[in-house]
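User: Thanks for the earlier help. One more: GLPGLI family protein. Can you show the sequence and predicted structure together?

Assistant: Of course, both are below.
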Amino acid sequence: MKKQIPFLLFLVFIQFQSLQAQQETAQQVLEKAIAYHDPNGNWGGLKTTFKVTMTTPERPERVSTIQVDFPKQVFNLTVKQAENTSHFKITNDGCDITLNGSAEFSEEDKEKMRLTCERGNFMKDYYTYLYGLPMKLNDPGTQLNPKVQKKTFKGKEYLVLNVTYDAEVGTDEWYFYFDPSTYAMEVYQFYHDESKNDGEYILLEGIEEINGIKMPKTRAWYVNKDNKYLGTDTLDKI
């Protein structure tokens, strides 16, 4: 007489097989997150203008107007803070910089306000990376950990993707937190050295739709180590 697997054990086995089938890969989670944030695939051909207002403790408000034209590979950034307005235009041919409407400015102002092409390119990468998430996680040089983590952050459970980068792209380690039902990105976090608990986390709230792309309305920045508040970016259409 053949031995039979107990019925309850059989049910457990079937449930285990079903759970395995339901487990998503990191790439599948990323694809669903991109489908939520950029359902029509508009990011790659984006041509638009938007405004970001940054408020930080004990510093004057900074208003940045960002104009991107990805098909022509042109990036314009106008920054107004206190009594000064600086402008960077970044193209494949180089960059143009003005301060208060003039291309002539002192070395003192140049150093104090970081009016350099290096700074302009840094800001281009900064804005196009953060407002291009999660779509930018498909860029070359991005190393997506295939394992999807589940973490509870600020009392809510998330699906979490872990990302590192090729050395020529970046050295920080990032974690991206997605709502398990909608796949909306609600938190991201980075470390220079995770063993030291350095770096920052960013809480995303609200949605501002720019050319059909769901971007975070506000981003509030905090230090990982002690939860110190650093500042908030607020996005607005123009």
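User: Great, one quick takeaway?

Assistant: DSSP finds four helices and 13 strands in the chain.
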